[in-house]
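Researcher: We're reviewing a set of sequences before deciding which ones to prioritize for further study. For each one, I'd like a predicted 3D structure that I can look through quickly. This is Appr-1-p processing domain protein. If possible, include the structure in token form so it fits the rest of the review sheet.
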Amino acid sequence: MIEVIQGDITKIPVDAIVNAANTSLLGGGGVDGAIHRAGGPEILEDCKKIRSKQGGCPVGTAVITTAGKLPAKYVIHTVGPVWNQGKSNEEALLASAYLSSLKLAVEHEVNTIAFPNISTGIYRFPKQRAAEIAMDTVQQFLAVNAVIEKVIFVCFDGENLEIYRELLKTVR
Ligand code: ADP
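Model: Here's the predicted structure for Appr-1-p processing domain protein, in token form for your review sheet.
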């Protein structure tokens, strides 16, 4: 089941929320900053442990940490691509960010998961195309995986909300 809502992802009580992180895993602006601020220092501590093991999080991959003080159980940190006029394999990398997050969620028996609109903020990925990729990737995954029962797309801005609402009509 796929839902689309407008809101702040740090407030959503699901098994896992996804963070649009950067490769350093050391926090940043946008949704990343909001998650670390609201979740407290435990999330960054986990991120630093992962960094010391694997040296960051490559674009298109994902890692999982505690959710600290957030109402979720886990934060899945994934790194979307920076938009570069479509010249740097951005579409495949964005799909990979969603897919890696979903796979990691299943490994941790996550039944409900919330995604922000990865790469559409500071990374400037065109919103319509990003939403199509997000929706396609999630839909295809749900068709063959029973562990995840609910995926919530949490839109922060009204433009993304409208785009996702329209796309959701085509899914049903
Ligand atoms: P990126 O670097 O991947 O573009 P950003 O954090 O800049 O990441 O933006 C990703 C999306 O997250 C944007 O659509 C932005 O509006 C949205 N966003 C920012 N803060 C929040 C929040 N608290 N909850 C949900 N989405 C948010």
